[in-house]
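User: Run a structure prediction on this.
Assistant: Running it now.
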Amino acid sequence: MSGQVEGRPGIIVAGAGIVGLCVAWHLARGGAQVTVLDGEAPGSGASAGNAGAISAGSVAPLAMPGVLRQVPGMLLDRDGALHVPARYWPRAAPWLLRFVASARPARVAAIAEALSGLLFGAMERHREILAEEGALDLIRETGQLYLYRDRAHYAKDAGGWALRQQHGMRLEFLEGAEAIRALEPDMQGDYQLGLFVPEQGSCVNPLRLAQVVARGVERLGGTIRQEAVRALTTEAGRVTGVATASGVLPADQVVLAAGAWSARLLQPLGIQVPLETQRGYHVMLPDAGISLQRPVVPADRKAFISPMEGGLRIAGTVEFGGLEAPPTPRRAELLLEDLRRAFPQARTGGAEGFWMGHRPCLPDSLPVIGPVARWPGLWCAFGHGHLGLTGSAPTGAVLARAMLGPQPNLDLAPFAVERFG
């Protein structure tokens, strides 16, 4: 790598989403010479458009026991919170089979254990970065509120909440609409049970957070270049750098943090990863006419209604459709309907269009983190699914320690790419 300082390992991070940026920040802080490469501006993809939730206690995988019963709805209900278009069924089928297989009780318990180890202290890890960058105003710790119609409605999710409680999540049950309104006075929907999670947090501007971390990488001596990685380069059985439009860039080590595009870069190395994009949407309302203190989640729709610097963000829905298909406007319209269920008085006329991004999702809800055994010099940090913002700071901390020392306390074996065979 041109200009490499003798004695400092030259590391390329492929991907400038929030995960790659946090990895780069910790590597630069640890003394490495870091270059971050991405075809887009830092944090401009899924990292910019997420719901802003920081959910260290979200250890329950998406595939819970009994998920098989939900698959027909995914395939047939075009307005469901999770939808697989008919044209995409053949491509989604192998992923869905793995998804259902990961819902075995023993496997669910192991996944939750691994996620708990990774996400424990996530808020503290975010604070660590933002305190050094002078941007603690980006996060708020006012909890999250989940809304259920009644106890029968809650029963469908009870297993997931019990699993979270087993790993230390504290819940407060709010019985009746009045109890809910004591916490969020503007809630006027027909929800009779609230679950308040006081120790979770949120970010008021995910794009600004990514930009702050990017500036921190540069402050610590790293380099960020808006240049797409086209391939990983190899020599003598190890990864030696990356190829871009401007040529080959050598490196001592490469971190693959390219989100939903990571699997494409691994394929030429003979590594097949069942990585799927679960396309997520959001709508921003600059002046919704309601005031919220925290993210509110109508559980029947799995939509996050989050107060942010630019107004109210309604984010959610899961759509399979690949990386090339255009956005589906109907998915964004559904988010406004989700908002009206809880806040029928909200003003929705000033919606600033809508956004769609690609969540990198693996069927077992575990990201790929750590070294690639078959290819020395290559490390991975991708596939965080719906927990990319939450998992970014802890992933950066643990991977930097694994690469530079001292060894982290977290066992990376459950996150290894080799688990897919």
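The mean pLDDT is 94.
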